[in-house]
Amino acid sequence: MFQPRPMTHLLIAASKEQMASVVTELYRHQIFHITDFVDQGKEGYEGVKIGVPFENAGELSNNLLKIRSIESVFQTAPSTQSTVQMRPAETIRAAIDSELPKIEEEVSSLTVKRSNAETRIRECEQRINELKPFALVPLELDLYRGYGSLTVFAGYIEHDLDISVPHEKTYVAGKDGNFIVVFAESKNAADIERQLADAGFQSVSLPVESGTVQAAVEKYTVELGKETQIREDCTAKIVELKAKYADLLAACDEVLSCDVERAEAPLRFATTDEAFVIDGWIPADTVDKITAALNQATGERVYVTVDPSDYEATAVPVEYNNPSFAKPAELFMDLYSRPKYKELDPTIILAIMFPLLFGFIVGDLGYGLLYLALALVLRKTLLKMGETGYKAFIIILGAAISTSVFGLLYSEFFGMSLPWHSIIFSRHLPIGAGMEHAMPQVIELLIVSALLGVIYISVGRFFGMINHYRMDHPGSHRTKAVLAQLGWNFILWGILVLILSVADLNEYCQFPFALPTFVAYPTIAGIIGAILIVVGCVFVAIENPLDLMEIPTNTLSHMLSFCRLAAVGLSSVAIAMVVNFMAVDLFISPAMANLDVVGVLLIIVGVIILILGHALNVALGILGGALHPIRLHYVEFFTKFYQGGGIIYKPFGLKRKFSEE
């Protein structure tokens, strides 16, 4: 449960004649994690080199590139297709040979035609934009060019100016900029250019068209319409082809991806002129199964052996070994880092506690039902994303159910009280009509949150002791590391005992059961607490005396950090109740007492406040309810014992959705 799936290091060797059979059999079982051969040319590996792909690898890769190019045009991918019917792989390979050339030619023709149309559309739009300012000048376009002794300047300028040399000028002020055209003798061009630059002149290209500006613009507008229609026709035909071939292309993509992976597998092997060796890992309980399958596939002309060497944990691929209900939480673990092979895997704790802490924070039946509706609305979209999307859906669903259950326990529905009193803790504030005597159990919520912190930190340190014992090399360093983790727990428990020896928490809160207290034996409890703290400090100092400086952060602040669970939850309740007060007590209720035109407007304003306020609180609930539990696990919990950095187990073989061998 807290341990990754046991792995066995396997070596497979055979003559090159058996390579295809071995690769096919390994690919079919999809359980062998290949370790790439990277020692070519190193001492001791003389004559051993990386293998070469099978002969058909180039053709298969080329076909796969063609299919993915077409899928790019269609804006589709196998991951977006969820309703494709399973087909035999041989049928799909036959379709690749017969249908792919035709599809490629048709799509390529439409793509080129559409691309040419888009290029011409941009050119027409550019020419129209460049011609527009010349419409303000009463000249035909031919008159801007063809001179031997005259130079023409045209462009935008900040303000009009007086030019000190002979010239002809047209200046037009406009909201899009001031446009100026200047004709002058070429011998004065440099002087005019300098004067224009001083006035912030920005030149534009002189027109190359003939006739009037209006006629030229109309010509480009007509051409623009034609090219736009061509583009739309091509796009419509591409959409038709997508509807016709998208499912087939998804199946072809999958089959070719499998074939290419198999064909290029020798690039990961160590080979000689006559033989090859595959190095990898396999789940320990499948060794006999894969050995028997390889012997059968090759006629027992393969050598399979288990390598008994004790490898470092960082070299072993890690496959989670969690019960089904905990698998969605593996998404959070991979966001942080996969555990090392010999490291405790805390996924199951995260799977149980994340939805509980989410519900503890948000805890509102109305919000829980909204989250549940959101999960159902997003279901199809998430499931199209494959395994990751499914895990995200289950996480959202679990958070929604937990929020609803805690809402029933808190007696909360969009910040309002349900017909019964809160079953566990009351979080209602004295806000709004009928809530004048409400009193939230803040102390109780803070105590529960802090106790959760004590439990988390204690369990984290205990896990740290186990991890150090299992992962560190035997010796004094391992002993010191284990004692240091125990020392941190002693310090935490010693502080807790000292607090309980001088303060009876039952006097400040009301729990259905009595909290432990040592106020009746302050001296004995004080001595025990002090001994725990002193012994803990000694154990920590044995490993590193400087770590004692971190007692305030590693112990107290991390424990108190869990109080955010109560604080964020109370803030959510406060926002909901304030929204209800503003919408109902200030707008809707007074308007209902005197219903007229103004009253109707006030009711509408109140409803808007109600919807927008709760929508904001729902969004904040998602952010706070998810972010804070994850942060508490990542920062306050994982840092006590968890390193991560494990190699992800990637078995050789693609999980098929659309094809079958």
Automatic annotation (TrEMBL):
Which Pfam family, any one of them, does this sequence belong to?
V_ATPase_I
Its membrane topology: Multi-pass membrane protein
Keyword terms: Hydrolase, Ion transport, Membrane, Transmembrane, Transmembrane helix, Transport
Put simply, this protein is called A-type ATP synthase subunit I
**NCBIfam families listed in its UniProt record:** PRK05771.2-4
**Where is this protein found?**
Membrane
Main localisation, per the record?
Answer: membrane
